[in-house]
Amino acid sequence: MTGEFAIRRLLAKDPDRALEAIRELTADPDEHVRRLASGGTRPYLPWAVRVPVLVERPEATLPILDALYRDSSEYVRRSVANHLNDLARHAPDAVVATARRWLSAADSNTKWV
């Protein structure tokens, strides 16, 4: 089961408040919860309803990705990579800037993402 559908309804209704709560999930000890933070906020999540604010404000989810791109779990990092790929569709400059920033503080997992 997944909470992505519920998160997306919250994002559509009150994006700022939802994003604040979702950012807290990035520190959860459970990798599934951390993955939910990244996957649930993807702009083009294939199996879910679109949330226009995620496309209109691509920078809004970057703090979530910033918290997770060096995650110990490959499962979570793969979600971050998918999310970044989604952002590249409509905000390529933001993605390039983010990748450069991440590479300046890289660890062994950063280049893969």
Automatic annotation (TrEMBL):
Pfam families: DNA_alkylation
Protein known as: 3-methyladenine DNA glycosylase AlkC
Source species: Pseudarthrobacter siccitolerans
